[in-house]
Amino acid sequence: MVVHLRDVSAHRELSHQVSRLTYTDPLTGLPNRRALLRTLAELRDRPRPWRGCVLVLDLSGVQEVNETRGREVGDAVLVEVARRLRAALAPDHVLARLGGDEFAVVVGCAPATADGVAARLIGVLAEPYAVGGGRVLLGACAGVAEFGPTATPDELVAGADVAMRRAKSLGGNRSERYDESLEVQLMRRSMLTAELPGADRRGELDLLYQPIVAVDDRHPVAVEALLRWRHPQLGTVGPEEFVPIAEAAGLIDEVGGWVLHQACRRVASWRAEGRPVQVAVNLSAVQLRESDFVAQVAAVLDAYEVPPEALIVEAGEADVVADVPAAVHTLGGLRALGVRVALDDFGTGHSALTYLRRLPVDILKADRALIAEPVTPGTPAAPLAEIVVRLGERLGMSVVAEGVETAEQLSALAAAGCGYAQGYLFGRPMPVEHVEAFFELHADGVPRAIGPSTVD
User: Fold this and answer.
1) pTM of the entire structure?
2) Each residue of 322-380: pLDDT tens digit?
3) How far is 225 from 229, CA to CA, in rounded Å?
4) What domains does the chain contain, in order, with CATH numbers?
5) Nearest CA-CA partner of 105 in 160, 170, 158
6) What are the strands, taking DSSP E only, across 200-339?
7) Are 425 and 404 in contact (CB under 8 A)?
8) What are the residue boundaries of the GGDEF domain, all occurrences included (predicted)?
């Protein structure tokens, strides 16, 4: 009898060990993915419907820690992550490690409350980690999926994972909530990412041109080259969608180089025909930080025998403020070549005004919000235009007003002394043949450029 009891006790202990190995993450001691799915299945099968959400958290930076500091330090970081999450959650929340640098939380609350939990956890995980005799910083993003009675546990976790990947694609350090449209968006992004390489060689990239005119007589002085992707299945894809993909995939040199070549080839052709118009191209955030970008521009100008002052390079205000030293270096190098430099989207609230005196800029492109139609009837049509124009004058910069759509706005800009404007009032982005017809309509105007050429 005693021997039999000992056998039962040993069997129970063995079963307990097997269960622990089956349902526990060995590094953190947390429940693993299998345990999480079992918990979700139990909640689904309750007699009374259970309301709650699943959160999937993804850490960024762990792989870099493993590569630079060693896997032991990386493991220590993950153990600390688990400790912080445990401490930040309520006793009735279920925390699990899905594997790698992903964790999951089951919370018995409505989606809006779960969003708040996700935001709090992201903040907790962003605090520095003191491990391995040094300091480690991580980022995190989260996806939230609401518990549905018809969804399987796997589908619920997959939904939260889709939302997490959406948050990650938007820059991380944020959370997103799952809905079915997210899967469509992610499938579209996946397709664009897979098919963007070689789009230039397949003839799918296209440039449209929007005129920039002198305010006094509407004579065209420049055109802005605007990129489009003519995708064979998805139709026209705008740069706001695929340029971030190109940056993330390391393809921005390929895409940006194509734009620069095409724009310079076109302006060389126009100048040979007696049209001394300038062409503006947009600079991406990644290109702004590239040490050899100025040399790339110089080589393209030389290849098409385009004088540097015929090219305007536009850098977005947000991108410049994000890395002012890199912006000063790159834009200063372009200016030294004789290329005109424009600060795009000026006035969008990114504090460029603080750095404006330091920036090697020739042209301020005032954001459309600064000249938008007033809400109150009878007020000036462009109330902030005069302020921007005076600022440009004090700093020796030309001002281009973007997004001009009405004659009233144009009159207000003229009264404020603004020299140049761009917008649907003069022309939408158009193909080459249409912009050339636009030139012909204004063939009697006096050829000119935006402000004097500036070479430091």
Assistant:
1) 0.68
2) 788 999 999 999 999 999 999 998 876 555 667 788 899 999 999 887 876 554 555 55
3) 13
4) 24-178 (3.30.70.270), 202-441 (3.20.20.450)
5) 160
6) 205-214, 220-231, 235-237, 278-283, 311-316
7) yes
8) 50-180
